Structure formats: structure tokens, C-alpha cells
């Protein structure tokens, strides 16, 4: 790929380095975009494995999101106000952040981070001699040289900008929060004058960093908010690098959530309700047309336009009082009535049951528990202090105080739950070999009738895998626990295990594949085929990403087995289709294997572990 890039770059250098305001796609440009994605993949692994990116950066990183800093700020505000303290938050907006990146400073920082060799040469070539033009209709402007900034629309530009501002939170600024170019920091305490002095010191440091790196803080978009319950707090005065005074506001919208002076979210909830009333009109229009839209597309509109916006930051602002949340509850009930055409007198409980939608307070509880479980998979996380015990949660001055830590601990206290930390693989992702997955029968099922599934399966199985050791696996879930089983046909080996009630059938299927790989390695089976009926587990392996599932990561890490001479195949989507799409419901899996594959030792699974449709 590198040779292809160098050969095409010399032929079309002008096309590659020139950009139009209206996007256009050239044949050579597609090759460059593909090469940029390869560079980004390798660069991300290098940055994450060696912990180069700052601890407080949550933007443009895997398994990190806006909820990290929203919940951090919410937690410190609620704990401080509950104990009669104040919080002074400074929100900084960098003016034209991506367009003001100094290329020379960025290249020096890349060398400092250890990015050298061919990677450094490519990024240096990527940033140098770039031009742009503006097109209006069929008229093009003069070509101008791009002196500063990164290329717009490139997948490499966001990660280069993250490296450019990577040292901003480390400049003696307490409690920083960085999401891409959105920067915020705060101080909490009872003395407002001391908070002013501490924040001014951090603000001066941030302004000095901007001057050294060629950035400028926008005085119009940046602001400071004093979050307190005092009616007449002491005045705050903060100065920027040009001695301009930083505006003081009573509310500020940070990462999509409006934080108010009193620590409430009334304005945010009112804005959401007004936005949703307009979006529900779209549902009414589609429902009122000739014949009208069906239930499924209406639910899709509700989940994409309404529920997804409600859930943004729900872990924080939904700790508000029930009276304040009534507009959102009414919006949900109105949307569900529109989706299924229910009458206004339909009880809310029946409405939610018919739509298979849980109430918003249960949805809030579910998201909080999922986020805490998500945090437990990190060895280091900026929100780790929010799930730990603290004195503010133990001795609050208000009786109705409930922090995120207290709320989630109350729900998970009676459960013996532990999270598994996900570690970045020491093997680079581009060196990992995804196991071979055979989905031939899946394509056959989609194109032909189900009557031919069994004969084709037997023919495909004998012709392709006659010399392989057959390993059959299965997993299922009942009310109290999940189970999985493994059977090695040629060696008459049987293995089964059970999981707790929190595990799913998907987890049991992945664990069965993982245990089968362990057996292959321990028994030194050179050629083996793992037969499974779980299409979802096979698809999770083929479209693997490190952030998805810990068992999937471990399965992919077995890729060195193929380098060591082991040949492993995964054959899937068999038995469920056979039993469901033919009239063989009375035929057991063991009988089918004996009759068609002539196995000497059929599988001995419990009835709960069989999936017969």
C-alpha cells in the first residue's frame, strides 16, 4: 500500500494537495483516503498502547464519550451545593481551532511523542504544500496556499488536532476536562474570592499556552459560571490574555447540556420539550397521510429523533425533581400514543407495555448502571472518582441528595458483580489475523428454498472439512443462568459450563468459541473446524473492533495459532435454520449428526442447551 501511495503521489500531487470548498472525489483521492485510514488505525493503536494521549481527553477516542465530562461536572456541582459550597466553572472556546494549527509546532510535538520514521514523513508530507479553492457554480477562485491548519474532511485531521492540544491540560490546570476542542476546568470551595484567584491562575496558564502554540481564546464564546445557592454572591472578575474580561453568565451550554447557576436543569429540559414538540409534528404528518405510516417506521422516528436526544446526558440531568421532568414524560407518552394510535384515555402502563418501552426513570437507571459497568472495564478513567465513596455523599446537608455513586451503589450493592478490565493488545491490530469464518450456507439459505439446506450442508461439510477435527459448540440462556457446551467428535471430549444471571446467550456462544480455541491449542490439533449456530457471534468476529467484547478480543488474539501452523475454520448458521425451516422439530441434534454425518459419538448436551427452534 505504501508503494502504491508513493507511485500515485508523484503523478497526482497537485490533485492530492489541492482542496475545494465543495467536496469532489477524484479517482486518485480515493486511494489517498484509504491510505489515511490505514495511518489513523496504526496511529491510534500507538497512542493508546503507550498512553500518549492525556488522561482527561475524551474526544475522538474509543470507548470514551461526552458523558464522561458531563457527569464529572454534574457530580462536583451537586456534591458542592449539597454541602453549601460553590463551584466556579470556566468554559474556554478556542477560536477557529482546526484552522489555526501551527504545522511546525505540531511536527515538533510528534517527534516529542516518539512518532518518527515513515509515519512522521507521511504526516509531514500530508501537511505541507496544501492549497485550496472556492467554487461557486462553475467558477473557481484563485489557488491559495494553506499556511496553517489541517485538511478539512480528512480522517487524519482530528487525531492530529488532539495531539496538538494534548499538553494543554498538563499545564498546572486543576480538574481539566477536554473533549476535542471543548475545554473546561473548575474549582470548588466555600470561599468565592479564593476560587477567583485559583481560576485566574489556571486561566492565565491556559492563555500563555495558547500564545505559545498559535491559538486564540474566543472572548465572545468563552464564559465563566459561578454555581451557587447564594442570592447575592461576591463578584467575579477574570481576565484573558489581552486583558479583556471574561464574561460571567448564569447558564452555559457545555457538550449539549445547559448548566444553570443554581445547579438545576430547568432551562435544558424546557429547550428539549420545545424541540420535541416540533419533532412530533413530523410523526403526525406521516401518520396523517393517505394510508399512513406503519408502526415500525413511526417507532424508528421516535427512537432516532426523540429518545436518542433525551438519553444524551441523561445520567446527569435526570437526577432533577419529578415535577421538573414532567414535560419529558408527557412527550414520551404523546409520542407512544402517536406510534400505535392509542386513545388519550389509554393507561400509561398499558401504553408502555404495548410499545415495549420502559418509563424514563427506569431508562435513566439502566443507563446509569451500564455506565458504571462501562467504567469498571477501565484501569484508569476520569470519572473513576464519581463511582467511589466520598464524604459529601456520606454527610450531605440536604435530605434528598443522591449522587451518581450512591444511586448506582444502592442498585448494585446486593449483587456480586465485578467488571473485567479491557487492556489494549500488545500485538498491533494490523498484525492480527481474523479467524476464517465460513458463511457459505447463510448465502445459500437467502437464495434458495429451505428444503435443500440439509443435503447441501452434508455435501459442503464432507467436501470442505472431511480432514478436519470437528468441534461442535452451543450456548443458551434460561431465567437463572446461561450455559454453553463443547463436543469434540473425533476424540469424544465433552465440556460444559454455566454463567450467572447477568450473562447473555451471546456471551455463552463467544465463550464456547474461546474454549474451543483453548482445546485446539492444548490438544495440538493442527486442523479443526468449529461448528456453531450463532450468526451474531461469527459476525462480531468478522467485523471485530477492540471496544466491542472482551471474549471477542481474546478470540482474535488466538490469531498467532494460524502463524504457528494451526488451521482453524469457523462454520456457522447451520442447525437453527435446519430445524426451523424444515419439519424436523422432533429430530434431535444427536440423531441428525448420527444419520447424516455418521458420527460414532453424538453430542450429549442437556435439553436446556439445545436450540431446536
What do you see in this structure?
With 613 residues, the chain is of the alpha/beta class. Helices cover 45% and strands 14% of the residues. A hairpin with a 4-residue loop joins strand 14 (469-477) and strand 15 (482-488). Helix 9 packs parallel to helix 12 (326-340) and helix 19 packs parallel to helix 21 (550-556). The longest helix has 23 residues, at 27-49. The radius of gyration is 29 Å and the shape is globular. Mean pLDDT is 79; it is low at 2-16, 573-590 and 592-613.
Which key terms come to mind for this protein?
alpha/beta, five-stranded mixed beta sheet, globular, disordered C terminus, 613 residues, 18 strands, disordered N terminus
| Percentage of residues assigned to helices | 40-55%
SS strand fraction: 5-15%
Low-confidence residue ranges: 2-16, 573-590, 592-613
Roughly what is the average pLDDT, rounded to an integer? 79
Distance between the termini: 47 Å
Largest sheet: 6 strands, mixed
Cα gyration radius (Å): 29 Å
If helices are DSSP runs of H or I spanning 4 or more residues, what is the number of helices?
Answer: 24
Structural class: alpha/beta
How would the global form be characterised?
A: globular
Biggest sheet, spatial arrangement of strands: 13-18-17-14-15-16
**Strand tally, please?**
18
